[in-house]
Amino acid sequence: MNIMLFHSTYGLRPAVREAADRLRGAGHEVWTPDLFDGRTFETVEEGMAFKDEIGKDELLKRAVLAAAPYSERGLVYAGFSLGASIAQTLALGDDKARGLLLLHGTSDIAPNASVDELPVQLHVAEPDPFETDDWLSAWYLQMGRAGADVEIYRYAGAGHLYTDPELPDWDEEAAEATWRVALGFLETL
């Protein structure tokens, strides 16, 4: 599988590179574009401030430019938190997308979004301050109406970005369970 993996608001940290290496070890080709031009952050607040400084449109432009050379191959879009929201936006706009793997995040869905049974897998903490139960219920219904085939996995007691061992949210058990399920999902595409 060809996977475009987008980083979180913390930037292109070692955990993203380690995730890419894990995916490569399972036989996938993986790209990890740096949407923050080398900047990384220690807190979500710093990362969000930088994201806001760049602006949503510019971030999406950078993501589209990173994915464009490979989209003809049929990409699986994937991402962590902010990167998941970017991956979702790109996957819903790419008729050649093979799948969507969302880790710790989702995004708004355009009312006219339409896909042909796009396989989607979401992994989130339960509870998650950024992905509330009401939001996830509405998101699930909207993705279904758009034509996506969605699976949601929740991890009780895990922190928001629980797959990053360098962050306070780290939860080794939830992270390993996520990767087991996610790698199985990728094998089905």
From TrEMBL:
InterPro entries named among the record's database cross-references: AB_hydrolase_fold, Dienelactn_hydro, Dienelactone_hydrolase-like
Domain of life: Bacteria
UniProt keyword list: Hydrolase
Boundaries of every Dienelactone hydrolase domain copy: 3-188
Family matches, as Pfam families: DLH
Molecular function GO terms recorded: hydrolase activity
Protein name, UniProt field: Dienelactone hydrolase family protein
Originating species: Streptomyces gilvifuscus
